[in-house]
């Protein structure tokens, strides 16, 4: 069935509809990774977004039960140049087309994604619709582009406290702002027992769980929508080692007085070079964010530890006196493949040091 992407700047891109036959509306963003489309589809950070894949062939290894980042997709549309309908992989259980249809997500393939991405890079992220050709004719080409929903963290967070891993040397409480599943898996691989809690969990409940450390996850939307969470984050930093990833990084910045701003078209891909200013090493990173911490507003208590090699934006900070640190990129995605392992080692080292101090005090 003929379909279109209709953008708020008046441009249209044609293609063929796949997946669910329905209208999709959201912020149109692009991802530059060659693989990982299943993880992208189920990353809660893409809530209310239509994702354009720049690599021309998507779906060639199908969909399997092991590579989901969340139980369901949160994006509102998926666009490719070519969507493979006959995948070839021993783990494949279904096609991309079938998965989109099952999950109620509309897709558009056969699109000139090179031209579309150039437009987004020029104009910035744009709101858009994926619609059928019949709907174009029915509304006579007239579309309105309302503001997108906000406060998305409350929408995607887990509703209840869950135990992800029952055993481990360190107990980590993971505040779920829209956490990718591999964050908890990576913590478990580094010897952590992980308890996942809703984003709005109170300081008292977190204390009662007796964690050794706190992980602040990734998540969707504008970090400024989560100002109500900042007092808890500041209080946690006074008591526990804290490690933030992506949105968690931005909220640490806000919690200590920095500001954030929306980027023109964000960073979404799996090969972004990031320099660790402490060692001079450049790491290849996976990223998915449309906002950044404004380095000009950083308070004196925060030190920049990482910067993006391409545009100089802040990619990591640490508190000068507290065991609190964060990175803008996704170390759990490991495109390096082990470039970011040292961050989890740093976190476990901080938890070990905290346990040592507690033992000395008890003695």
Automatic annotation (TrEMBL):
Molecular function via GO: carbamoyl-phosphate synthase (glutamine-hydrolyzing) activity
Keyword ATP-binding assigned: yes
Domain of life where this protein originates: Bacteria
SMART domains linked to this entry: CPSase_sm_chain
Function description: Small subunit of the glutamine-dependent carbamoyl phosphate synthetase (CPSase). CPSase catalyzes the formation of carbamoyl phosphate from the ammonia moiety of glutamine, carbonate, and phosphate donated by ATP, constituting the first step of 2 biosynthetic pathways, one leading to arginine and/or urea and the other to pyrimidine nucleotides. The small subunit (glutamine amidotransferase) binds and cleaves glutamine to supply the large subunit with the substrate ammonia.
Keywords: Amino-acid biosynthesis, Arginine biosynthesis, ATP-binding, Glutamine amidotransferase, Ligase, Nucleotide-binding, Pyrimidine biosynthesis
Domain Carbamoyl-phosphate synthase small subunit N-terminal: 1-131
Family according to the record: Belongs to the CarA family.
Keyword ATP-binding attributed: yes
Family matches, as NCBIfam families: CPSaseIIsmall, PRK12838.1
UniProt-annotated binding residues for L-glutamine: 45, 219, 221, 247, 250, 288, 290-291
Pathway: Pyrimidine metabolism; UMP biosynthesis via de novo pathway; (S)-dihydroorotate from bicarbonate: step 1/3; Amino-acid biosynthesis; L-arginine biosynthesis; carbamoyl phosphate from bicarbonate: step 1/1
Provenance organism: Tumebacillus amylolyticus
Protein name stated in the entry: Carbamoyl phosphate synthase small chain
